[in-house]
Amino acid sequence: MATFVVQRDLPGITPEALQSAGIRAKSCCAELTTEGQQVRWIRSFFLPETAQTHCYFEAGDKAAVEEANNRARIPFTRIVEVVEMTPDAV
After folding, report:
1. Which one in 29, 44, 55, 63 has a CA-CA gap of 20 to 30 Å to 18?
2. Phi/psi of residue 44, each to 5°?
3. What number is the average pLDDT over the span 39-54?
4. Given this model, what pLDDT does residue 42 score?
5. Alpha-carbon distance 39 to 32, whole Å?
């Protein structure tokens, strides 16, 4: 499976709305996986200064990540495949 980052611009979002979006993302990923399209929300980072989030998903393809976010009704700017780098790996 590949890893993808979902970039979002969310000006004015509240902590409660962020939590609600996370609950919906988790639920929609589970729903898609039950339907045979594996997708898993890994984690998200919120950047308060710019009102952006970077949400990381693991999935078989970009389309599964897009479908999960559309079902969860969470707007996004773009979805891009990423390559993970860690201090231990370099």
Report:
1. 63
2. -135, 150
3. 96
4. 97
5. 7
Given the structure tokens 């952006």, which residue do they identify?
52
Which pLDDT score is estimated for 55?
Answer: 98
At a CB cut-off of 8 Å and minimum separation 6, what does 2 contact? Answer: 58, 59, 60, 61, 81
Cβ-defined contacts of 30-39 (< 8 Å, 24+): 31/71, 32/64, 32/67, 32/68, 32/71, 37/64, 37/67, 38/1, 38/64, 39/64, 39/65, 39/67, 39/68
DSSP states of 2-31 as a string? EEEEEEEE-TT--HHHHHHHHHHHHHHHHH
Residue-range domains of the chain with CATH: 2-83 (3.30.70.3090)
Residues forming beta bridges with residue 44, ordered by sequence position: 55
